[in-house]
Each structure stands twice: as structure tokens, then as C-alpha cells.
Amino acid sequence: MKTSNLIIAAVAAFSIGSCKSNLKPEKPSAGDANFATYVAIGNSLTAGFADGSLYRSGQINSYPNMLAEQFKAVGGGEFKQPLLPGEAGWPIAPGYNQKFVLGYSTDCKMTTSLGPVLYGSGGNTFDTAGSATNIASQGPFNNVGIPGIRCIDYLLNGYGMLNPYAGRFFSNPATQRPLDVAVSAVPTFFTMWLGANDVLGYATGGGVGNVGGVAIGDISPTTIFKLVYDSTVSTVVKLGAKGVLINIPDVTSIPYFTTVPAKGLALTDPAQVTALNAAYAPLGITFTLGANYFIMADADAPGGLRQMTADDYVCLTIPTDSLKCYGMGSIIPIPDKYVLDRTEVAAVKTATTAFNQIIADDANKYHLGLMDANSYLKTLQSGITWNGVTYSPTFVTGGAFSLDGVHLTPRGYALVANQIIHVINQTYHSTISDVDINSHNGILFP
Questions:
Q1: CA–CA distance, 354 with 357 (Å, rounded to integer)
Q2: Is 18-255+343-439 CATH 3.40.50.1110?
Q3: In the structure, how many helices (H) and strands (E) does the chain have?
Q4: How far apart, in whole angstroms, are the C-alpha atoms of residue 432 and residue 38?
Q5: pTM of this prediction?
Q6: Average pLDDT in the 93-111 region?
């Protein structure tokens, strides 16, 4: 997510540790807002991306679609999404195709366990025929979330020719800007969760891109981000729309970076400890029985490698068989593309802080609601309980994140929807009902 997009949000004023439902307020009202035409601007998180791909039921369980359902009680109108025809997942961006599902696989030690496997592994039927067909005639669409899009892409003419998913619902893919498509429905209310991909591609790629570059996998330049973000918000607000802006989470809080521990080299054989200590003695690296930090490649370290620290993060995409059976992380350094090191983490955090300040400034400038995704995701670390069910960012079992470790489950997207509703109610004096989080699915077990 390597789209973006990853991930949730809330305002600090709300009690997060134990969420109480607000499913049926006494009298739902729109307050100071007009929900007749709601448009959702964003990236993969807005589109409903999950499990490493985009598929129809994921789109149906997108947080904008959940919001639109709640808005109906306060004057909300029809909400159109550019739905895909099937469930297999569609190759909409480099590195993504069929989705992950939970299934059984056997590792290099011949141990069979339950974990993410590709959709096709279980003999599932592929149903992607017609996914690339242009459906612009069915629009204009209200959910214009585009997997893979960055904030700095939003004023780019012809973007539909660069991104197949955008191309399928843009009426003029060769000439239109994403902003043109977003305002074609003339929104009266909007949400905007844009900007995560301006740091996420760099992070999920192990920091091999550049800081302040414009290529995919770079951290976007702050000056361009500010110009495009403000131009987008200004254009929508000038139409008379009110809305909520959503900021960028700290990517180091998501399962993509927290599932494989940096101190994950378990040594149980004294002979192996002795051999590794002898091999790494010239670099001053030592090992002990038990848990040890992995060895990683680092061009700036003596010998081009070093031992990881608690400030380095292993990417979820690392080949685990290589760790278990073939010496990666011990006799073979983990390649740079599988590690977000402490210097790269600092670059991501610096950019995230700068981008979030821009988002906050625009919320204040245009008198819009602001949902603090960055703070909420950090709060999620200790768990959130909703009507007796606890959610956390733990991979697979936490209930909030899907099998790609970046995007959310339907329940995770419902958490997002409710935080947006809380911000709307606070900002616009509305009394909109919460989504029933527990009525949506988490990870589906075989």
C-alpha cells in the first residue's frame, strides 16, 4: 500500500479507549450541512481497497458508502461508486493484482499454518472480465477515490491514462484532471483523505526512493503538496460545499511495519551463536542465545551492513522463508528494500508532520472539519472496544486491518466512518447516527 494509501482517524476530544455506540440519536438532523450530494475525494483508502487489491465487496464496504447510508436519514441523496464486476481483485497499480485471502500454506520447514495466500490459491473463480471497460456514462460518481493517487497528481491533466482505475471512470482520461472529475457531481458536502501516498510509497518500498522527488516511490515536495492540496480544497469549497479533511497517519503504526519484529532473530543453538560472533567480530556485532536484532544492509555502515535497532522497521513483504531457512537476517543481510531504517523513518515522519500542518491549516482557513487520523491510529495501539468487541492493529487478529497490513477491513472502515461522523456532528451541529461497526466483517476465516 504500494498505494496508499493506509490509515484511520479521530479527534482527540472523543474518548477512544471504550467507544459507546450512538446508533440512533433521538432525532437525526443535518445541522448546518447539506448532504444532498456527497463526494468522497481520496486514494485507495477512500475507494475501499483491501487485502492488496480492489474488488467489488470492498468498494461496497468503503467508508464513503457507509457514510452515504447514514446521510440518507438527514437528506443525503444517491451515492454512485464505479463498482468493479467481481471479487478476485483487479490489477490497478504496479505490484497489485489478485487479492489476499486467509488460507493454509506450508513453509520451508514443512510447517503448515494459516495466513495470507493469493485468491487464486484456493481454486477461486476469477471474475475480472470487464473491469477495464470505461463506465463514465454511468456517472458522475460520488466516490472518486483512486488507488495509487498522490496529492501532487490531483491537478495532472490526462491522469486517467496513467492509472487504469481512474481511466475506467473518467469520461476523458486523456485530458481530465482528477479534480475535474471530483467536482463534476457538484458536491454539497465532501470528505477528503488525500496525501498518504505522498509518503507511503517511499515507506513501503523500504525508503529506496528520494526525499522531495516527484517519481513514484519518492516523498513528494512540500511546496507542490501545499499548492495542489490548497487548490483542490479551494475549488470544492467555492462550489458551496462543506466537508471534512482527514490527515495522514504515522505509517510506523500500521501492521505493514509492526508485524515482523526487528529483534526477530531467534538463536537456540550455541554453535550458531559462536559462528555468528566469529563472523561479525571485525564489525563489533555480537549475538546471544534467544532474541537478537536482525542484520540489515546499510550502505553508510562499516562493511555495508549493521545490526538493526528498535528504531528500524521490517516490511511485511519480506520473504519469510528466507528468514526461516536461508540465513537472511543473519549470515545474509536483509536487503534495503525490506527495511525502513531509522534515517528513512525520520524522513517519513518529517514529511508527514509538514503535510498534516498543511491539511490542518486548510481546515482552519476554509472552516472545515478535521479528522486527526494520525492521533487516532496511535490511540488504536492500545485497543478500541465497540459494543463488546475490541479492535487493534495486530495483523490478522486485530480486526481493523486487512491482509495487506496497510488497508482496512470493513470493520476498520466502519471505525473510520464513525470518526468522520463525530467530526461532522461536532463541526456542523448535526446529529447523524453512528455506523454499527460489529455488523460488518473483519478478516474472514476459512
A1: 5
A2: yes
A3: 13, 15
A4: 14
A5: 0.91
A6: 83
